[in-house]
Amino acid sequence: MLIVLTGIDGSGKTTAARALVDSARAEGRSALLLSNHAARRRMSILSARYGWTLPPRVTDTIETAVRLFNVLLNHARARQFHGLVVMDRHLHCQLALRRTAGLGRGRLLPWLLKKLPAADLHVHFDTDPAVAHARVMARGTDQETVADLRAFRDAYRSLPEYKDLVEVDANGEPSDVLAQLNRAIAASEEAAVPRP
In CATH, what number is assigned to the domain containing residue 44? Predict the structure, then answer.
């Protein structure tokens, strides 16, 4: 089973992905966690340290290249793995970032989304930008503003693909979010069972 998790920074998707894989392994099942990051956090840290301000198109070019590499590599890894595969982030993240930056969708990412194997379940972690901002500040590894996170959230919601995602309320405690995620997985597995 392939599960994809998306959401704005601070939505808790990475925490939930790790917990999901850990719980599956604790039950004796094979599970693999794959991260489709775009080096945004590292670029944010470098920008703050050295006072860089890259143009949006340059930033997008770097992020898209890193994201594409990870997505293609991880889909290849997922094909070779038998068990639960959880992908933390996907191409939808880059499409939302592009929209946030006022850039177009382009042709490559939407085309790849149609060509790559579809996830059995794609869960989007919807989070209040203020809650997400508090979490980002608490981890202290990168910088985001509430306005940026709000724009990112709106960009996700405006994607044509958004209607096909299963949305969970990610404002609560990690255990509550994981419980919602597990319910979504159970519902997806039940729907996939052929009716007699």
Answer: 3.40.50.300
